[in-house]
Amino acid sequence: MSTREAAAPSRTITSKDDLTAWIASGEKPRRDWLIGTEHEKFVFKTGSLAPVPYTGADGIRALMETMMARFGWEAIMEGDNLIALRRPKSELAPGGIGGSISLEPGGQFELSGAPLANLHDTDAETRQHLREVLAVGETLGIGFLGVGFSPKWALAEVPMMPKQRYGVMTRYMPQVGSHGLDMMYRTATIQVNLDFGSEADMVKKLRVSLALQPIATALFASSPFTEGKPNGFKSMRSEVWRDTDKNRTGMLPFVFEPGMGYERYVDYALGVPMYFVYRDGRYIDVAGASFKTFMDGKLPQLPGQRATMDDWSDHLTTLFPEVRLKKFLEMRGADSGGGPRITALSAFWTGLLYDTHALDAAFDLIKDWTAEERQNLRNAVPSLALEARFRSSTVRDLACRTLAISAAGLRSRRVLNPKSQDETVYLAPLEKVAHTGQTLADELLELYHGRWNGRIDPIFQEFAF
After folding, report:
1. Total-model pTM
2. Element (H, E) at 380
3. Residue 370, exposed/middle/buried by CB under 10 A (0-12, 13-18, 19+)?
């Protein structure tokens, strides 16, 4: 089958109001707010430490086929290529395992977790996923590494996964930025997707999460190496995004202006050039075209065809700001990391955004920051992380204040596990970083210059999942 479910044809867009209504349809009452966690991992051969190709007895496809055979995942195909996995529909209810596994362009292995009710369920989902992939990986001689940027491989070494949309992006990216291919093939991240209750709630959460995204970047910084050497950054992944495609990335200063709402975000999205259109099982390259032109039926590649709501949904997935709005909000600022750090990211943002008092406190913290200050903070964090300056203090100071707000928000949720622990237990890795002032990037650099004696290979043993 294709990557799309068989379904009724998508409705043709008749006006911009359809686009704003699509986003607004994501509104949910507080009782229905859920947490969706995504995490990517680099896949490597445990013998040679080389990246894993798609084909072969020990390739990415074999990894996915073994996941299907041993753990009941179902195939998602694109033509003859197995490109993703999903759980059976019977397991997709909130609180179940659910979710899907997909491939990023360079073979980064991603779990897109099911929307879950609390962080205890998120942690259980993550643990189950890691147990499964590690068990299969052991039989195939495959390992998994959670850092933000490939520490060893040159771009030319990284295989391209056989997904049509990646071919379109690979051709287009070098035209609009110097690091687009690095972003696609050599970065890995953790993300969390969170709900909103109304337009006003969305705006407040979007403003808070955009302003504080550099704090998350600093806390999760884990990518100080490129091709086996220090690269001068704590988060090379974050630095790469600064010159990937300025039309579709960044801190979205318009979000903080009067009049921000669904329609203003739609206007922004309509101004971002398209990548592709999906029709009849294939991706048609329309890179650089205007979505508004498509709405009017004047796209040269599809004359007379008008955009549908599925096309709009696809287009929104090709926008890459620090926080992305669809029918929910996606936090996009963190490097990848080991198991406890995965749930820690979801805990950080859930505590800040899902409790009224915590959200108010976070908004009070950032409400007088200027656009220039927010941008300067975002620019400084990739190289300096917690040591970056902000006004009369440091990002480390801001991280401590933000973590305190998040912890209070999580305590207020009063969600306990069988050990009577609330969700604040998942902030522990970040509280350690803020308390010591040492990010994972700092720890890695210390090892590289010390016990590793200038060698990068030990990272694959000591920091693999």
Report:
1. 0.97
2. helix 371-384
3. exposed
- Give the helix/strand (H/E) hosting 365: helix 356-366
Residue 359 tokens read as: 């959200």
- Please return the burial class of 154, using the count of CB atoms within 10 Å of its CB with bins 0-12, 13-18 and 19+: exposed
For 432, phi and psi rounded to 5 degrees? Answer: -65, -45
Residue 93, C-beta contacts closer than 8 angstroms, at least 6 positions apart? none
pLDDT at position 90 is 62
pLDDT over 90, % of the chain: 95
Which tokens sit at 120? 């205890």
Walk me through the domains of the chain, giving residue ranges and CATH numbers.
16-462 (3.30.590.20)
105, two tokens:
């362009």
**Is residue 249 a contact partner of residue 178, using CB atoms and an 8 Å limit?**
no
| β partners of residue 276 | 285
**Which SS3 state, helix, strand or coil, does residue 84 take?**
strand
Residue 21's H or E segment, with its range, is: helix 16-24
164-176 pLDDT, tens per residue?
Answer: 999 999 999 999 9
